[in-house]
Design brief:
By secondary structure, the chain is an alpha/beta fold. The protein contains 8 helices and 9 strands.
């Protein structure tokens, strides 16, 4: 007579075998979708960068902030990579995405990627994604410089040329610049009074602007300068 314990063990073995076979033969959906945006350093004009990411790659974006990354995503999912377990998870996420975007990286990081140096983790993610056939992109906070030979700027251009020849797409966004100050072509007492109400101590006007006598008198009384 067969012992009950042996029957139980036999049943468990058969069930495990069947389940394993079903799992192996089950169709798997391994289609990749979405974008993984990698941040490794400071991102200037973060709102503009965020808007550019969405305009270029859609709203299905997940952000990963690695080590010294300084960026606050607006309306996008984000995870911070702080240890080896996080890095393993990030690599898995990269494998599941259709596009990988490296945002405002340091020049030296770009050069290592262009050289095929995957000793660093981010370099490894970018190069491995490229080998996997993913769309690999870099979003820069500057336009590719065109300067004289033998300069640092030429080296940047060479690195970017190498990256694009590898199939990496390079895009740019414009950082915020200095706000232009409107200059007046006619300065009257009204402009001086408006400057007083705004708490300003000067009025900026064009070099050939007309300044009325009353404007000069009121400006002198209020100690407001008229700058050309």
């Amino acid at each position: 007579m067969v012992q009950t314990d042996n029957w139980d063990e036999l049943v468990r073995s058969i069930v495990d075998s069947v389940l394993n076979r079903i799992e192996r033969e089950r169709p798997r959906d391994e289609h990749v979708v979405g974008t993984l945006a990698l941040f490794t350093t400071y991102v200037p004009s973060p709102k503009t960068a965020n808007e550019k990411l969405v305009s270029l790659y859609g709203e299905d974006i997940e952000c990963a902030l690695h080590e010294d990354a300084d960026f606050e995503p607006f309306g996008l999912e984000a995870m911070r990579i702080e240890d080896k377990s996080d890095e393993k998870l990030l690599l898995q996420k990269a494998a599941s995405k259709g596009r990988i975007v490296l945002v405002t990286p340091k020049i030296n990081l770009l050069k290592r990627i262009a050289d095929g140096d995957d000793d660093g983790f981010i370099e490894h993610v970018m190069l491995r994604s490229l080998l996997w056939g993913r769309k690999v992109c870099i979003l820069l906070d500057f336009n590719t410089p065109k300067f004289k030979r033998g300069t640092f700027f030429e080296k940047i251009g060479d690195v970017i040329d190498s990256l694009t020849s590898m199939g990496i797409q390079v895009a740019q966004y414009d950082c915020a610049g200095e706000k232009e100050v409107a200059t007046l072509t006619l300065v009257t007492e009204n402009e001086i009074e408006q400057a007083r109400r705004d708490g300003k101590n000067s009025v900026v006007c064009a070099a050939d602007a007309i300044v009325t006598p009353l404007a000069r008198e009121r400006a002198a009384e209020l100690n407001i300068s008229i700058d050309r």
